[in-house]
Amino acid sequence: ILNVEQSPQSLHVQEGDSTNFTCSFPSSNFYALHWYRWETAKSPEALFVMTLNGDEKKKGRISATLNTKEGYSYLYIKGSQPEDSATYLCASLVYSGGGADGLTFGKGTHLIIQP
Amino acid sequence: KAGVTQTPRYLIKTRGQQVTLSCSPISGHRSVSWYQQTPGQGLQFLFEYFSETQRNKGNFPGRFSGRQFSNSRSEMNVSTLELGDSALYLCASRLAEFFEQFFGPGTRLTVL
Q: Mean pLDDT throughout A47-75?
């Protein structure tokens, strides 16, 4: 995988349901994986920065896992609420030469929570 | 602590003109990155500056350039504007390499 790919592109979920989506990224020269939430008319907001294979991070009802060997990360939202409606972006940081390259973003998963 | 600020917020230019966008990072952050967001392409990395030096550059033509000042404020310049340069330009600052980025509100550039 040369690019960062996210699936699904969009998702409609009933309030109270749990959901998850996927980020696939290049596993070679891996440095870090970022997750951001981007609400309409706001700036992207960082959720997690993950660096180690097997990493699991949690913030409230949102959690993420990381598999650097196979190049994927999952984001989970438990008990979705209307305020979770946003676009969720993942971004890969790879190592080249003297340090990390710039972040490569996926196109995002657009999540809509229906009351 | 004040967040990342960008000026101007909106800009309308015509083809062939040039434009300069400004970004002030969070106090203490020495890294500033710039991104272009278009509906079809998503967020694309333009370049990153750290301590006044360009550290990384994305796959954009030479018309896109930037610089960073000693107070970490950064400017991005686009010369000879094209219609396809119409986009939201976001800048982001961070403390260090493994830390999250904090994004500004963006500058919406429209090229007519």
A: 95
